[in-house]
């Protein structure tokens, strides 16, 4: 705020004569009056500013994953810790997409993919998950993304393959979303999922498949090996698997995962579950989850309406064919602003 300089100076200048003193008193009174007016304007403006701040936050989040998936303007990004807007009967799901800090374009693309899906009766948070930043430019670019989208989780780890990123992810969640801190719902999420950045998840189908399932001691996914339909033998594929919150807490507390961190992550995950005698509830989502039809293997399936997830979308062509098949742009509203044949 620019203060009128002369007023300010007059106050501090010592008056030398009587008329100067008069002028000084008058201008002091005026100055005080001016301050009061300023303060009252500012108060009003401050309120407006607060409201404006909220609006900006709201509109920012309405473009981002969470809000868009619930289609509710109240349900903004900060709703993770506020129970007031969420319905107790809603299923709460965290989807963590494990990726690398430098995958900016992939994240922007996936924000489109998930931000345009709407789901009712569920609260789904999609977050990108990676380890410590390592480059100077990441500190700016990732921070900007967080300011804009608030959909990133940075774990305390160094990027690795087969050295425990999955462990760090699941075991960090109880602390990151500690519900005894903020008075949010307990558990913060009924289910937490780990998935790849080349997997396409259809959120509505996922929610519908989860609705009848237990919310405790559950291990859900695509059973490995590919021909197997028995979820009690091996483990779930890294294309995407989901566990109930109590299992994330168990992973945090148990010694079993801590003592078996190295190796192919999803296979090792299956060993923890086996050795800990966990997950008496298991759900094999095959063939609603599958690898993209080509190249054809024992793990692939044709695109079909009953799909929850398609994996190995390794290039744009595969994404486009998949998105086309599922009619994802069918609800584009007509407008004079554009024409898409
Ligand atoms: C979003 O909510 C509005 C108002 O509640 C409703 O009219 C609209 O159909 C909803 N859109 C979707 C995609 O569910
Ligand atoms: C919660 O959702 C259920 C089913 O969608 C609905 O019947 C119920 O009225 C909702 N409760 C509140 C408090 O919104
Ligand atoms: C990750 O970063 C944090 C904070 O900058 C640091 O304390 C921690 O040691 C780092 N962890 C690893 C594994 O490098
Ligand atoms: C959650 O917060 C409570 C209270 O601050 C603390 O006692 C507890 O250890 C925390 N739990 C985790 C998993 O960090
Ligand atoms: C996509 O739209 C077409 C034409 O309306 C319809 O025949 C087809 O069943 C839809 N596909 C899916 C997966 O919903």
Automatic annotation (TrEMBL):
Keyword Disulfide bond (UniProt): no
Cellular-component GO terms for this entry: Golgi membrane
Pfam hit, one: Galactosyl_T
Cofactor requirement: Mn(2+)
Main location: Golgi
GO MF: hexosyltransferase activity
Bilayer topology annotation: Single-pass type II membrane protein
Gene3D superfamilies in alphabetical order: 3.90.550.50
Protein's UniProt keywords contain Ubl conjugation: no
Localization per Swiss-Prot or TrEMBL: Golgi apparatus membrane
Biological or metabolic pathway of the protein: Protein modification; protein glycosylation
Its EC number(s): 2.4.1.-
Keyword tags: Glycosyltransferase, Golgi apparatus, Manganese, Membrane, Signal-anchor, Transferase, Transmembrane, Transmembrane helix
Family: Belongs to the glycosyltransferase 31 family.
UniProt protein name: Hexosyltransferase
